[in-house]
Write a structure and sequence with these properties.
4 helices, 41% helix, four-stranded mixed β-sheet
Length: 106
């Protein structure tokens, strides 16, 4: 399963299981189509290394990075994770739907 397929599976599963939380789990648009699009996105706030998704809940925020079973974070993703953790937010690397639900406390 690709990272995109895993992310879609988790999102759709959550969307269907928790309709009252729709809009609280969302994708962070961080994959430009090309260099020009990337320059435009950076000019309006794109930050390299940001997690794939964000989950908002009454206890705070969890940033979710989706990876294949063999996938590894880039150096920029590791740096961004450290920044997130340094301000008290949660961050999870997701490699299965079970890890997803554990990370969001479901």
């Amino acid at each position: 399963m690709t990272e995109t397929q895993l992310q879609a599976l988790c999102f759709q599963s959550h969307w269907n299981a928790y309709p009252e939380e729709r809009g609280l789990l969302y994708m962070n648009f961080n994959n430009p189509q090309n260099a020009r699009h990337g320059m435009h996105l950076r000019s309006i706030g794109l930050v390299a290394g940001v997690a794939d998704m964000t989950y908002l809940h009454s206890g705070g925020v969890v940033f979710l990075e989706f990876k294949t079973l063999k996938g590894r974070q880039s150096a920029l993703q590791i740096e961004w994770q450290a920044r997130v953790l340094s301000v008290g937010c949660k961050y999870a690397i997701i490699k299965s739907i079970e890890e997803f639900y554990k990370a969001i406390g479901k």
